[in-house]
Design goal:
heterodimer, A: 267 residues, alpha/beta, Rossmann fold, 2 domains, 4-stranded antiparallel β-sheet, B: 267 residues, mainly alpha, 13 helices, 76% helix
Chain lengths: 267, 267
């Protein structure tokens, strides 16, 4: 039995539709005679259903079973709205499921939207501190990593300056440095973290490699098959919130490709 | 609709405890916002004090003259009223935005939601510290006497903060689901200002005093204002404020237990 684990047991995540046109939308998609056509022609998004309380909901994850253990490197692939981000957020504990259960063992490091919500008036060191605390680390841990991030990013005195003085490349360095500063037990990523300019890219790749290798369990959502080939040892194809295929990387990618080609054929 | 399990209660309780404990997060966030708001201004956060001084000078003197009040007694009373009102009303308006405004952070990682309530409350306490300066100046000018009753300001302030805690928690969750709540609170503040004895004495209303007697904010204001002016608050005020805290927290806690997990879905 490994130290780390993620277990999803018949997990269902629903999004309520709080639109002013709630009714008409529901009529259009569910109660109208043309709904059959609407359903079969739809290529993206989760299935729109009525939940137990009779409200129209988007079913973003439907009856998902999954068990990940130490050493698992899972790639998530699927079209827009297939549920990739939702499953990551559910694993991170942000979305608590409407039904089913999620159990995790190990400290979770979610890396989504790392460059969002950066305060351009905060200095580099303040950003390192706030980000670290936000990811649930202690004051002491944050203090220790700050020095290491400073060395890696080579930002030097800029770390005492507000982010507004940074170039785009420097911002990426900082965000990347912060994201990879901690050896995660469970790592959840929405797309691979960017690495910045050419001079930096080799060092970044090396750091990313050791970062991912040190991780107990990794789950990454991406549209890029190459990223899954490079970093993962298994893959899942998500479709309308369901697991359409789960297995070896090449098998799942082949299934994904087959479906993409199929959908492009005239029906 | 109203089913709350033991698990909901436990998770809500954990959320609140962890939220209070993550003081380092709300401290950094509050300082960052304060700096951002007054960035590159010469006076910086002293603008909070200056704008209050102007408000007090204009409103206090104008209303005091209209009501034919003796300034020695009236101006300290009105200044303190305005200082405390600004704290209460601004906390309410910003409290309605506590989760919506922090949605970037909430979607990035699992954090206790109550940390964002505490953050708004803390930020407004920092503002209060800046505005109290104006009252101290006014009190010195009109030499308001300090009495043993002044010490009651400590438990009174504590009760004010405890009450604001449940109000903000309730309003924050409600406003995450119904976005109109924020606008509703914002627009009702002007009316509430005149329904609360801030720049007038309750006795001035004569037969219509019941308006004040039914206004919970009037009690919150009274309990802090009286000791600062050297009088002990009435037993009735203590009773009302304490029962508000107990009943309010019970209600808000049950409400939070029921809807806590839904908040990220609403953002």
């Amino acid at each position: 039995m490994g130290r780390y684990e993620i277990k999803l047991d018949k997990v269902r995540v629903e999004f309520p539709i709080y639109d002013l046109r709630n009714r008409s939308l529901r009529d259009m998609l569910l109660l109208n005679p043309v709904r059959q056509i609407a359903q079969t022609r739809r290529a993206v998004g989760g299935e729109i259903k009525l939940n137990a309380a009779g409200k129209s909901v988007v079913c973003a994850l439907d009856n998902v079973d999954l068990h990940l253990k130490d050493g698992d490197r899972l790639g998530l692939i699927g079209h827009n709205g297939a549920g990739k981000t939702t499953i990551l957020r559910a694993m991170a504990g942000i979305y608590e499921p409407a039904a089913g259960e999620i159990t995790t063992r190990g400290e979770i490091t979610p890396l989504f939207g790392m460059t969002e919500g950066l305060d351009i008036d905060a200095t580099g060191y303040e950003t390192i501190r706030l980000r670290g605390l936000m990811l649930g680390r202690s004051q002491q841990e944050v203090g220790e990593t700050a020095q290491e991030i400073a060395e890696f990013t080579q930002l030097g005195d800029y770390l005492n300056m507000p982010l507004r003085t940074y170039s785009a490349g420097m911002l990426v360095r900082l965000a990347f440095g912060i994201a990879t500063s901690h050896r995660p037990e469970i790592l959840l990523m929405d797309e691979i973290i960017g690495a910045g300019d050419a001079a930096f890219i080799d060092r970044a790749q090396a750091r990313l490699k050791s970062f991912i290798e040190a991780t107990g369990i990794m789950v990454i959502a991406t549209h890029n098959p190459e990223i899954i080939r490079r970093w993962c040892n298994q893959a899942i194809l998500l479709s309308s919130g369901k697991i359409a295929a789960h297995g070896a990387v090449e098998d799942v990618l082949a299934e994904h490709l087959r479906r993409v080609q199929e959908s492009m054929l005239p029906s | 609709m109203l089913s709350i399990t033991r698990r909901d209660l436990r998770l809500a309780w954990m959320d609140i405890c962890q939220g209070v404990r993550s003081w380092n997060i709300w401290h950094i966030l509050a300082m960052q916002e304060l700096r951002q708001r007054y960035r590159r201004s010469v006076l910086g956060p002293m603008w909070i004090s200056v704008s209050l001084a102007v408000q007090v000078a204009v409103m206090g003197i104008l209303v005091g003259t209209l009501f034919k009040q003796e300034f020695t007694k009236y101006l300290p009373y009105a200044t303190l009223g305005i200082v405390l009102w600004n704290f209460i009303s601004q906390s309410l308006v910003e409290g309605a935005n506590c989760f919506v405004g922090a949605s970037v952070y909430i979607m990035q990682a699992k954090r206790p939601l109550f940390a964002f309530v505490a953050h708004v409350l803390y930020r407004n306490l920092v503002y209060l510290a800046h505005t109290v300066v104006i009252y101290v100046i006014v009190a010195l000018i009109f030499s308001v006497a300090l009495t043993p009753a002044t010490l009651l300001v400590v438990p009174a302030l504590l009760m004010l903060v405890v009450n604001m805690g449940w109000i903000l928690l309730f309003v924050g969750v409600l406003a995450a689901r119904f976005r109109d709540v924020h606008m509703m609170i914002q627009s009702s503040m002007t009316v509430l200002f005149w329904l609360t004895p801030i720049v007038f004495y309750p006795e001035m209303l004569g037969n219509h005093r019941w308006i004040i007697d039914l206004n919970p904010i009037a009690y919150l204001l009274d309990i802090v204002r009286r000791p600062v002016l050297g009088e002990a608050p009435t037993t009735l005020s203590w009773l009302v404020v304490c029962s508000m805290a107990v009943l309010g927290w019970t209600g808000a806690f049950l409400f939070f237990s029921r809807f806590r997990a839904r908040v990220p879905y609403w953002l």
